[in-house]
Amino acid sequence: MELSLLDYKFILGFENFLRGHKPSHYQKQIGNNAVMKHIQRLRRMVTLAYDIEWIGQDPFRKFKQKLIPTNRGHLTGKELELLEELTLHSLRLRTVKDLFVFSCYTGISYIDMMLLSEGSLVMGLDKRMWIANKRQKTRNPVKIPLLSKALNIIKIYREDKRCQIYGTLFPKISNQKVNAYLKEIAIAAGIQKKSHLSHG
């Protein structure tokens, strides 16, 4: 489709398509805020095209974004314990559970966790292991102490071939899949809250 043909009617049609679309890895249609995120990505590209005068007008000028406030909540200590003790037979679900628990004990974001390598681990002055790296989002250096439970999760994947391929501490898995699988894990653990791994 040519950029010059992209108009307000197309945007409304795209929104309706997204609202009726059911991705193969989801159990239901995507929600309102996910629809708005997809439209935001398109809007950035179209705005750029308008700014550099590839198109004569901005078709998004009439479009109103409709975000719904959400409260994901935080896991209680008891809920985290339930998650840790949960036995999962699926490798993909076990891996995602480990990633989520690791993030709970370190506060590290998804993108930073996916880039961790053996070189990210240092011995601190306290004779304990720490993560020392830079946040991808801000490039600011961070140091994070590794509690025993976080260290144990790292040890699980030391010999994992999926990690050896990329030279990372953890297997590569998309943020979208992680958050989709977390929904399955939460249901299995009997947790009602919407758990997710922050991207940045």
Protein model, in words:
The chain contains eight helices and three strands. The protein has 200 residues and is mainly alpha-helical. It has two domains: 49 residues, no CATH class; 113 residues. A three-stranded antiparallel β-sheet has the order 1-2-3, with no helix packed on it. Strand 1 and strand 2 form a beta hairpin. The longest helix has 20 residues. The protein is globular, with a radius of gyration of 21 Å. The two termini are 32 Å apart. The model has no long low-confidence stretch (mean pLDDT 87).
Notable traits:
2 domains; 3 strands; DNA_brk_join_enz; Phage integrase SAM-like domain-containing protein; SAM-like_dom; DNA recombination; DNA-binding
Task: Provide a short characterization of the protein structure.
The protein has 200 residues and is mainly α.
User: Helix-strand pattern, N to C?
Assistant: HHHHHEEEHHH
**Tally of separate helices:** 8
* Poorly predicted ranges: none
In whole angstroms, the N-to-C terminal distance is: 32 Å
Q: Would you report the number of β strands?
A: 3
Structural class: mainly alpha
Rg over CA atoms, rounded to whole Å, is 21 Å
The gross shape turns out to be globular
Mean pLDDT figure: 87
Question: How many strands, what sense, and barrel or not for the largest sheet?
Answer: 3 strands, antiparallel
Strands in their spatial order, largest beta sheet: 1-2-3
